[in-house]
Every structure is written in C-alpha cells, then in structure tokens.
Design a protein that fits this description.
Elements (H helix, E strand, L loop, with lengths): L2 H20 L8 E2 L1 H8 L3 H13 L3 E3 L5 E3 L4 H25 L2 H22 L6 H16 L5 H21 L5 H16 L2 H21 L5
Antiparallel strand pairs: 1-3, 2-3
Helix pairs in contact: 1-3, 4-7, 4-9, 5-6, 5-8, 6-7, 8-9
Length: about 220
C-alpha cells in the first residue's frame, strides 16, 4: 500500500478515536486494548500505538507504562481547572477580536450563531439526535467570536482547551436549554457592539453555569 494511503488510514483512525473520546463513546478510565482497537478502527497495532501516544500529548489518553493506555479519567477538580483556563483564554481572545474584527468577522459570527440557534431550538423541542451537531455548532460559534484575535497560537490553545471542556458536557449530556441559548444571543449582541466588558461578564456566567449544570447530573465523580 502506498505511503499516502497508510497515512490516510492512520489519520482516519486518529480522528475517529479522538472523536469517540471527546463524545464519551470511549468512556473515561476505559482500558484501551490494542487488539480490540485494531478490530474497531481498522488500524495496525503500531499505528494505534502512535495514535495513542499522540493523544497522550493532548491529555485525552493516559499512558500506564507496561500496562498500556486508558482514556483520560474525569473529575470535578479537572473540570473546574479546564473551565477556569477556558475563561482566561477566551476572555483575552475576545478582547483582541473585538478590537480587530472587521465586517467579515461579523459575518462569520452571525452565521455561526444562526446555525447554533437553530440547533438549540431543536434541542429544546426534545430532539436529542442532534447532540453531536449541537456541540459542533457551539464550538464553531465560540471559535468565530475569537477568530479575529490575530494569534494562531492563541486560537489553537483555546481550541484544545475548549474541546476538553466540551468533553465533560458531552459525557454529562449537559444541555441547559433556554438559559444557554439566551447567553449565546447576548454574546452575539455584545460582539456586534464591541462591548468587551459585557461579553466578559456573560462568558463568566456561561462557563460557570455550564460547570454547575454538568455537576448536577451526577455523572462526574
């Protein structure tokens, strides 16, 4: 098989395993046995070792020395730490975006919010089939808000932390309904006004509310 095909197979398996960890399909603390993964993700043992080592560096997998690998466990303390880091990074990036954002940035933010709002309406009506899509649109909206910050490193760091935060929400199936939708709408309006102080207050409540709601489900020990 050509090298590019091997790379494609490995990259495909990496994306699938990573997605399954973030969405909770591979549960926190689960032992990642290479023979099982080989059958489930159609990748060789050597490729899987490389993938899992890559995910270790992303804090999504834990290496257990001679005992192999396991999905990164979850904890209340870790969720609070990730939430605090997200608030710090996103708050700073929002200030930079508000200062530098142009009409194209506004268009990205409006378009991303439209998709998120439509999916939130579906979720409020009890449609749980779109949970993965809802979180994707949530991620896209927040990424659009910070997309004019001018720093690729800041964007990448924020994206990595945001994904780890979303993992907790996916595991807890933590959707807050009208409250979250209203916070997103308020963030949109503050962004279009370039009101950094207002969006900072809204963001703090948005993240703290998400943590409290996730913990209230009782799924995070």
């Amino acid at each position: 098989m050509p090298d590019d095909s091997l790379e494609s197979t490995g990259e495909s398996a990496y994306r699938r395993i990573r997605s399954d960890i973030l969405t909770g399909r591979l549960q926190p603390g689960r032992k990642l046995k290479l023979d099982v993964l080989r059958a489930d993700y159609d990748a060789s043992v050597s490729t899987l070792r490389e993938i899992l080592s890559r995910l270790v560096s992303e804090k999504l997998v834990v290496a257990e020395g001679q005992r192999g690998f396991e999905v990164m466990p979850i904890s209340v303390a870790n969720l609070r730490e990730i939430a605090a880091l997200r608030q710090l990074l996103e708050g700073h990036a929002l200030e930079q975006s508000f200062a530098q954002g142009d009409l194209e940035w506004e268009g990205r933010v409006i378009a991303a919010h439209h998709k998120l709002a439509q999916m939130e309406e579906r979720m409020k009506r009890g449609d749980q089939a779109g949970t993965d899509l809802w979180k994707r649109y949530d991620w896209q909206f927040h990424q659009a808000l910070v997309s004019a910050c001018g720093s690729q490193i800041l964007m990448q760091t924020h994206a990595a932390v945001f994904e780890r935060y979303l993992r907790y929400q996916m595991i807890a199936l933590s959707y807050r309904g009208d409250i979250a939708a209203e916070e997103h709408r308020a963030m949109l309006e503050a962004a279009l006004r370039r009101d950094a102080a207002a969006v900072s207050r809204i963001l703090a409540g948005h993240i703290e509310g998400g943590v409290a709601h996730a913990l209230a489900t009782g799924t995070i020990a």
